[in-house]
Backbone:
């Protein structure tokens, strides 16, 4: 064993010596290496640096390079001609090559007939305006119930119960006794007493013709509908004023729906709607809005409306589900494609295309939407070009260039005329004519005045001409004057 270890050590020493010798020989044969020369210095960038920024947080700017406080990365320099260049008029210039890569598309702001289509869901309900309540006029006893129960559908005139009413017998005997009396006023008084006791005219005529009393009253359905409640049972005692039955008509029925608060301004009583029920998917039912309730739901932020639907064949049953289409009146308004709008949450922006490849973010006020287009109430003028595709990247360039969206210079004023209803400080209430440019009909509204002195000399009842300007998401009175051009 000892001899084997000695041999292994000798072999290792020989191998190491051979390696050193080989390396020495190779070094002797190769030419000596020249000293490594430094790479040529990088060309200096002549572009002006505007600031440094973190690409993940582009709106935060820094005046010197360094490490980003937001991410584990170095800040990036923003150059004066780095793809997007801020213009003197608040626009950004995008290089032609960049525009080509974006596949940018433009569209023209133009006037179109736009009707807003609103789709909501609703439920069929009983018509609470078609309710009949039957009450006892006098005391009595239930002799018979005609096998009716709550939920049964009955025709008008169907018998519900027979009630024996002793007071009827005495009143009828008196009436018959007075038929042969010359004093007509006494007979009329006896006849009126029978009516007050609850006898129908047909029953009074039958007693008059037959000369026989009938103390039993048959309670009949006054309308065709469903029995909501039937409070009588055979053998019961009936007291004056007691409710005997309650019925609800079935034609027409109500269709109740909740409309989002933001869309509630486009609905009004009297408008027609189209409803499609799950039970009859291939059939459209026409209805009319009969009421828009005055209170909005504070939780769901919706406004409830009632639609009246004809139900002559009684196929529409309370509780059924329906899809409803509300169609607004078509009005010519300035529109752009809906996809051109950038919604930030607090405001809406479009990218206005200008000559020489420049673009400017413009804040706009939006109106109704339909058919892939959306109304622009303020911010744009007819014929201007807006970006439809690629606007988000252009908006990013504008943000990096320090541009913020503002109203278009020379913003359009919307003019109309009307009557002054009230003036309260910097607020004025006007009953104005339709303003088709922004899709408004004639109505009475309150507006803020851009200057309180605009209302100087005006009084309630004055006929005025005025001009509205969009500010944020509201309209304010920018010009107003008596019965002529606004001042």
Residues:
């Amino acid at each position: 064993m000892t001899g084997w270890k000695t041999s292994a050590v000798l072999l290792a020493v020989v191998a190491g010596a051979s390696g050193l010798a080989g390396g020495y020989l190779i070094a002797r044969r190769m030419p000596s290496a020249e000293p490594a020369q430094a790479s040529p210095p990088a060309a200096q960038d002549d572009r002006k640096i505007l600031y440094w920024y973190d690409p993940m947080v582009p709106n935060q700017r820094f005046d010197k390079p360094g490490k980003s406080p937001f991410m584990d990365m170095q800040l990036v320099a923003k150059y004066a001609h780095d793809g997007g260049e801020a213009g003197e008029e608040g626009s950004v210039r995008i290089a032609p090559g960049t525009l080509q890569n974006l596949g940018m598309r433009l569209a023209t702001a133009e006037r179109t007939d736009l009707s807003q289509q609103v789709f909501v869901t609703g439920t069929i309900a009983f018509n609470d305006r078609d309710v009949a309540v039957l009450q006892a006029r006098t005391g009595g006893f239930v002799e018979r119930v005609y096998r009716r129960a709550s939920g049964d559908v009955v025709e008008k005139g169907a018998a519900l119960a027979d009630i024996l009413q002793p007071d009827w017998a005495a009143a009828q005997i008196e009436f018959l006794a007075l038929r042969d009396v010359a004093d007509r006023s006494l007979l009329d008084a006896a006849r009126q007493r029978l009516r007050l006791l609850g006898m129908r005219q047909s029953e009074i005529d039958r007693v008059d013709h037959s000369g026989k009393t009938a103390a039993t009253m048959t309670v009949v359905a006054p309308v065709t509908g469903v029995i909501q409640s039937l409070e009588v049972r055979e053998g019961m005692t009936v007291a004056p004023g007691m409710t005997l039955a309650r019925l609800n008509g079935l034609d027409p029925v109500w269709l109740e729906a909740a409309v989002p608060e933001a869309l509630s301004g486009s609905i009004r009583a009297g408008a027609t709607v189209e409803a499609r029920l799950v039970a009859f998917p291939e059939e459209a039912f026409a209805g009319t809005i009969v009421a828009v309730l005055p209170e909005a739901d504070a939780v769901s932020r919706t406004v409830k409306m009632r639609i009246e639907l004809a139900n002559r064949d009684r196929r529409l049953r309370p509780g059924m589900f329906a899809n409803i289409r509300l169609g607004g009146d078509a009005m010519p308004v300035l529109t752009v494609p809906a996809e051109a709008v950038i919604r930030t949450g607090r405001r809406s922006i479009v990218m206005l295309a200008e000559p020489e490849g420049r673009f400017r973010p413009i804040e706009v006020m939006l109106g109704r939407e339909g058919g892939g287009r959306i109304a622009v109430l303020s911010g744009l003028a007819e014929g201007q070009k807006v970006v439809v595709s690629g606007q988000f990247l252009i908006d990013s360039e504008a943000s990096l260039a320090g541009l913020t969206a503002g109203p278009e210079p020379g913003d359009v004023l919307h003019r109309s005329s009307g009557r002054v209803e009230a003036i309260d400080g910097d607020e004025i209430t006007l009953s104005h004519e339709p303003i088709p440019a922004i899709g408004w009909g004639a109505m009475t509204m309150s507006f803020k005045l851009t200057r309180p002195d605009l209302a100087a000399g005006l009084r309630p009842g004055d006929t005025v001409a005025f001009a509205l300007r969009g500010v944020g998401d509201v309209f304010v009175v920018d010009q107003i004057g008596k019965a002529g051009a606004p001042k």
